[in-house]
Amino acid sequence: MALALIAWRKPNLLLLDEPTNHLDLEVRHALTLALQSFEGAIILVSHDRHLLANSVDQFLLVADGKVEEFSGDLDDYHQWLASQRTEAKPQIVSESRGASAADRKEQKRLEAERRAKLRPLKQQVEKLEKLVDSTSAKLEQVETQLADPDIYSDERKAKLKELLAQQAKLSSTLNQAENDWMERQEELDELEASL
Predict the structure, then answer these.
(1) What fold does the segment set 119-195 form as a domain?
(2) Which of 1, 86, 157, 191 gives the lowest tally of CB atoms within 10 Å of its CB?
(3) Looking at residue 35, what is its pLDDT?
(4) What DSSP designation does 58 have?
């Protein structure tokens, strides 16, 4: 009903859910530029960190049955997730203090099992984070070289072609790594919540 009323009033509003899925690099770039120049409001749900970083002014946090403004960026969100996990751990420890030796031993065994289940996923997340960081740095270097007007001279056509190929490859790698990181992070969050 609410969406029907919004559509009826014809506001300057875009509702986008994973708009970059199945788009190639050129179209993703064009979409990012179009969203940056859009004069209305945009509600965007996406795993595409590049798109979010380049087109979002305000993040909303959906947690504990509430939606509230999140003051920060994607890196701050990652830190928030980490703090949520560490806040959950003291509750387990405080509950185990009043238990008997056998209960504490069982609790330690269960925590070890939990860590063992989480370890492979945490390692994947860390590996993907490092890949995103290193690829972003390489892409920034390539784009800095592409920003130099001299690269577009006739004498440097071969270098330009090489840089454009590197940019395309790095952008593709970065997009895939970011999507994989978000998926693994969500899996990790869900697994941690269920254990």
Answers:
(1) Helix Hairpins (1.10.287)
(2) 1
(3) 92
(4) -
Looking at residue 96, what is its pLDDT? 47
CATH fold of 1-57 reads: Rossmann fold (3.40.50)
Task: Please say whether the beta carbons of 61 and 67 come within 8 A.
Answer: yes
Picking from 30, 11, 10, 12, the residue whose alpha carbon sits closest to that of residue 20 is: 30
**Phi and psi, residue 63, nearest 5°:** -155, 150
> CA-CA distance, 84 to 88, in Å (whole number)?
6
How many alpha carbons lie under 13 Å from residue 93 in its C-beta half-sphere?
5
The segments of the chain whose pLDDT lies below 70 read 1-3, 6, 88-99, 195
Which ranges in the chain are annotated with CATH 1.10.287? 119-195
* CATH 3.40.50.300 placement within the chain: 1-57
